[in-house]
Design brief:
By secondary structure, the protein is an all-alpha fold. 82% of the residues lie in helices and 2% in strands. It is elongated, with a radius of gyration of 22 Å.
Length: 260
């Protein structure tokens, strides 16, 4: 297993442990971070399966029609969850930093749990069409894919938007709004008594640390997902589906020859 996967696995495992601590459990944003870490941990078995397919020609997706549909569905579904949770975490920080009491009411653990549940159900149903469009395509080497070119492009564009472009745009937008909110709060606190500021000092420090962690998470997500999405878009819009299928067959055949 590559070193970066091992480091990522350890990091996400530690995140999952940290955000279950009682001191952080009361923060709504911690629920988003926890779900994001658990989602990334759930993706690792799929990473290993993809590594076996690419490196050794052992593609479990081609074993049966069910495995083709199921693993493709899980691969795409799990890749969408983590960026979605980061978007919710960004919006949560914006609401909490606002001076508007109505907005701050959205930054609660009850709301965060409901939004997480909604996201999971929505995308689980949204990508259900994969079960009807993907299947094993017979040939010199069987492949798990779809023969519908327009659908394949639609799916690639959708995943690229949901995992890379949309999270980045929303993060930049809400980062500006969070910065404006923090500036307004500081101006307000300057007019308050020093004793009251000291009472809120610990809470503000924790809030700032969580915002810094959020920024780090989004940067990592953008850095890791954008190159793959850009290359995938270029390949599927520059080459025809037949050329892509032929290229995949050559790669699979090369893995089989290397294995023998």
């Amino acid at each position: 297993m590559p070193l970066e996967l091992i480091i990522g696995f350890i990091g996400n495992s530690l995140n999952a442990i940290i955000f279950t601590r009682p001191t952080l459990r009361s923060w709504s944003v911690s629920h988003y971070f926890l779900c994001s870490a658990l989602d990334r941990l759930a993706i690792y078995p799929l990473f290993i399966l993809n590594m076996l397919a690419d490196g050794y020609g052992i593609d479990i997706k081609t074993y049966s029609s069910i495995s083709c549909k199921l693993f493709t569905y899980l691969d795409i579904l799990l890749s969408v969850f983590s960026p979605s949770f980061l978007i919710l975490a960004t919006i949560d920080r914006f609401c909490l930093s606002s001076l508007n009491t109505n907005l701050r009411k959205f930054s609660t653990t009850t709301i965060s749990n409901k939004l997480i549940f909604t996201i999971v159900i929505f995308f689980s149903l949204f990508f259900i069409h994969i079960f009807f469009m993907y299947d094993i395509i017979p040939g010199n080497s069987s492949m798990c894919t779809t023969t519908n070119i327009l659908y394949k492009k639609f799916l690639i564009i959708t995943v690229a938007i949901l995992t890379s472009y949309l999270p980045t745009i929303l993060f930049l937008l809400f980062s500006i709004l969070i910065g404006l909110n923090i500036r307004k709060r500081r101006q307000l606190f300057d007019s308050l008594l020093i004793t009251r500021q000291r009472r809120q000092q610990q809470s503000q420090r924790t809030d700032q640390e969580l915002i810094l962690l959020l920024i780090t998470q989004v940067i990592i997500n953008f850095t890791c997902s954008t190159p793959y999405n850009v290359i995938s878009l270029l390949i599927h819009f520059y080459y025809s589906e037949t050329q892509i299928l032929q290229l995949n067959e050559l790669i699979t055949a090369a893995h089989v020859i290397e294995k023998n």
